[in-house]
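Changelog entry: the 2-amino-4, 5-dihydroxy-6-oxo-7-(Phosphonooxy)heptanoate synthase record was regenerated in this release. Current contents:
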Amino acid sequence: MPFLGKEVRLARLFNQQSGRLFTVAFDHGVNRGVLPGIEKVGEKIAAVVAGGVDAVTLNKGIAEKFFPPHAGKVSLIMKSTGFSPYHKTYDAWYADVEEAIRLGADAISMGVILGEERQPEMLRHLGLLTKEAASAGLPVIAHIYPAGPLIADDQRYLPETIAYCARLGAELGVDVVKTWYTGSMETFAKVVEACPAKVVVAGGPKMDNPEDLFATTRDAIQAGAAGVTYGRNVWQYADPTAMVQALKAIIHGNGTPAEAMQILEAATC
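Regenerated structure tokens:
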């Protein structure tokens, strides 16, 4: 039987009307460095909160500095691991459940990179985290990507590869798996079907055309995704608040890409 604490936190994370989750991630400072768009990260966090995003993913130091003004308006997901420009295929574990609880987080997230020689170690870390988090009633979100050198480039987006990522997270007890979109509704629906946990789609590099982002988002939602976690596609856009509002129309309102474009253009004209 689920702990009440976990159920309460999941209810805060997921939109009560749509049952989906729209997160904007700001953990890139560890993973990729100070990318354009997050030099003044506090301002960008405020912008996406103003748009009505459901949750933000932050590392503990950024959460301590910039999250307090937004408490009660948006959920906090604390990131517990990260790769870096100098070890791109290994997620180092640097934060724990106790810290997430202290910060008031509604979930803790951990990255796992499959196809890496240290994959067994990262799987062990995920298993330990789900055990610790379960005792505290804290949901776990796993970012699982087949990005290691043992997986060929042309194998990484295959539905069976992405399905393995999603199912692995569920097997180890996570509540939500964040992974790559396979490229089509039909193939991603098979990923969702094979995973007892909720599956959300990762955004990746910024798309040049917002219409492409909206179309991908709509397809993922129709395929059964429980939501999306975007970063660069939101905070590298000229108006992150407007981008959040446009994406919400699809994620929570079942809107079309054309309707999302209308919202975006109306807000930025």
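The mean pLDDT is 97.
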